[in-house]
Amino acid sequence: MTNRRNTPDALRLVSVTKVYGAGASAVTALDSVSLSLGSGTFTAVMGPSGSGKSTLLHCASGLDRPSGGEVLVGGTAMTFGDETAMTKFRRGRIGFIFQRYNLMPALTVRQNVYLPARLAGTAVDKRRGAAVLARVGLGHRLDHRPAELSGGEQQRVAIARALVTNPDLVLADEPTGALDTVTAREILTLLGEAVREFGQTVLMVTHDPVAASYAGSVLFLADGRIVGEMANPTPSAVAERLTRLGDRVRAEV
What we know:
Elements: E1 11-20, E2 27-37, E3 42-46, H1 53-61, E4 68-73, E5 76-77, H2 83-93, E6 94-98, H3 109-120, H4 126-135, H5 151-163, E7 169-173, H6 181-198, E8 202-205, H7 209-212, E9 217-222, E10 225-231, H8 235-252
């Protein structure tokens, strides 16, 4: 297991703003958002529709360029310059888990998991790969292709792929949205174990209060701003806070 608790924050946003459009049609998706995620933490992001959750994830990952502010991953600032350099930065420092898995259908489980390392041109750490694959329960499926796997198994492949390069930050976008309740719980448990056992840092966007309760803390967004934080969340407490936020947003419309 890698202990990163004495290293710089896995993710730091400093007054990050994102504006789409210009003039009268401009929309502020993020409004001077600042946050710090320590290494080895599991944080969920929640908020009403249009609150800026996806934009936050896109700016944190370097997939979208902020209109202002600074993004640092593992203590290194993103420059948002040359796209080739940005792609290399993401491959080396950030792992991604998507709702629809985003696996390569022609590749086996093993090949999908090791793909980020190969694309980054780095040596595959076979010991870490074996440990991650064993932890997500895929040791017996290494030569199968995605079409031969269940949805839950495909998401396990996606988790292993995100962890195998030992990134500074793992970003999960609605990772259980396409799964049944039982499988979703298994996947969320795996994410929590990745934090505890591998020292990973996970930032997860979700609309589900139950999913959020697996995180150590929840950040609440509304109108592009962080408007609250909850430690040790429970489904009922998260749902109540979301209801209040939704009522507030509707009252302002």
